[in-house]
Amino acid sequence: MNLETLAEALGLKCKCCWEKLKTTEVKGGYAGDLLSDVMANSNAGDIWVTRQVHQNIVAVASLKGHAGIVIVQGASPDKDTLDRAGREGIPIMVTDMSKFEVVGKIYQLLSEA
Amino acid sequence: MESRKKPLSDEDFIKSLEGVYHIQGRDFVDAGIVSSEVKKSLQGKGIPESIIRRVAVITFEAEINIISYAQQGTIQLFIEPDAVIIEANDIGPGIADIDLALQEGYSTADDSIRELGFGAGMGLNNIKKFSDVFELTSDVGQGTHLKSIVKLSG
């Protein structure tokens, strides 16, 4: 499933790199706020769901080759985070939903795809 | 493998040294930049993507450890015919009990580090997990020395 389809289905707001949504394939997902956990256990092509907003999340997503980042609970990414995401081409989306709710919906979408 | 026990000649050292990266303690803003540089320098050299990902995790954790705990440090990247080697050396407090530091979940991180999502006591374990050879030594009050080897055949 491409990221644009997923973002539209869930009503996610794109804060960075909307031009990449159509061409980015989502292969799976991972949820977590501990960066070492995400580094160790997520996979390339995952959509990463987190409550962290600082720019280190872009470094992690870029190193792991994530499809994009979804920031939950209405939190806003720092300006530095968006600048870095732009430079590294990492899509960042936001939602008011809780992590639990977003993950459930993404899981269902990917299972049906 | 016998040759690995001998120190590298100056010529071989320079030949396999791919990069030296300086890291400043507490500089969380630039965290991940060294790992990103390391990843880029490994790409396009015929090294399998799975190996590059392991090296990226190792370098990232080593970088975060230096930033979180040390005054400053360096990461050296070596590419040998059969392996990628990452060496991280820092000037800092060192680790008094390495066995304890290697226990998953053990951490001396303060709240400012934890708020960023680091300091969960997983970093050294991640480095060990993703390495084929893992060596960690420390001189308390002086610094910590890490060597990680990722075999290209692994």
UniProtKB/TrEMBL annotation, chain A:
Protein name: DRTGG domain protein
Lineage: unclassified sequences, metagenomes, ecological metagenomes
Automatic annotation (TrEMBL), chain B:
SUPFAM superfamilies hit by this protein: ATPase domain of HSP90 chaperone/DNA topoisomerase II/histidine kinase
Ranges annotated as spanning the membrane: none
Enzyme Commission no: 2.7.11.1
One Gene Ontology molecular-function label: protein serine/threonine kinase activity
Record has Transferase as a keyword: yes
Pfam families: HATPase_c
Enzyme class, spelled out: transferase
Protein name: Serine/threonine-protein kinase RsbT
Organism: anaerobic digester metagenome
Upper classification of the organism: unclassified sequences, metagenomes, ecological metagenomes
